[in-house]
Amino acid sequence: MKISTPWALILIAGLSAAFASPGGTEGVDRRFGVDATVAEVDGLSMEIFSYRPSECAAPAVLVVFHGNGRGAESYRDSARTVADRSCFTIYAPLFDEERFPNWRYHRAGVIEDGQLRDPEVWTIELVGDLIDWIRDREGAGAPIYLFGHSAGGQFLSRYAAYAEPRDVERIVLANPSTYVLPTTDEAAPYGFGGLPEGMDPDPLLQAYLAAPVTVYLGSEDTGDESLTRNAQADRQGDDRLDRGRQTFDMARAVADERGWTFGWSLIEAEGVGHTARGMLESPAILPALGFEGLRME
Fold first, then answer.
1. Domain with residues 7-288, CATH architecture
2. 60: nearest Cα among 158, 131, 166
3. Considering the entire predicted model, what is its pTM?
4. d(Cα 219, Cα 174) in Å, to the nearest integer?
5. For 258-285, how does the pLDDT look when each residue is reduced to its tens digit (9 = 90+)?
6. Region 88-101 average pLDDT
7. Which residues pair with 270 in a beta bridge?
8. Are the C-beta atoms of residues 134 and 144 closer than 8 Å to each other?
């Protein structure tokens, strides 16, 4: 796979120049190829799999959040094509099932056993610390892109909705089972209803709709294997493709109705089902990351 000429040279040169660390390269980790390390993130030891392309002077960073199978290493490997062709260093953190069961990973630790938890212990709080750790290695000026597939997409939907992210270039929600809907009619973690005291839903909702979110869908992701099934999830649609389209349309309608900035994009990967590798290697991955007019082929 490659980026069509002349876009390959333009994109790689542009990323290398525009994303160079303003503070220089002192202290920046420069090991090329695949790697794995243990990071201390918000007091937790987390295994992180990484990959650095060898012919890229100042790469951007793509943080890849794995699905329900917890295959952080394989997700790292699936992202190597886009890393090599488009100048990204890949980081894939492992959210192991023992410490991060579904309620704490997929749904970000917002609810446990039906009870709303203190926002300070929501799992999305780890994302900012993870980004800080990456920037310690890559340099303070490294632009950060987030990609989550399936369970990872569910997790990033909660991050985009409740954390008011301001220091990332793009948040790609690839084939998640559920989203945070832009309404107070659905309770958290499926909407903005019933939030803890002190979390005003309106400014959070406005920031969510303005965030650089891509709803990235496989056009063939219409099955129901491992699809989240409960009353709130089923109200979002029949399958992942349907739920993604409906969520995007709803978000755009709410932004239009309120006169708010709308920062979302909807991108579909033709012929791709529920597969992280397919989504990461699709020609549509670059538009999903916000590079308009560029496609992998």
1. 3-Layer(aba) Sandwich (3.40)
2. 131
3. 0.89
4. 11
5. 999 999 999 999 999 999 999 999 999 9
6. 97
7. none
8. yes
Give the tens place of pLDDT for each residue, 128-148.
999 999 999 998 899 999 999
Q: What is the mean pLDDT of residues 154-180?
A: 97
Task: Label residues 164-193 b or e (16+ Cβ within 10 Å = b).
Answer: ebeebebbbbbbbbbbbbbeeebebbbbbe
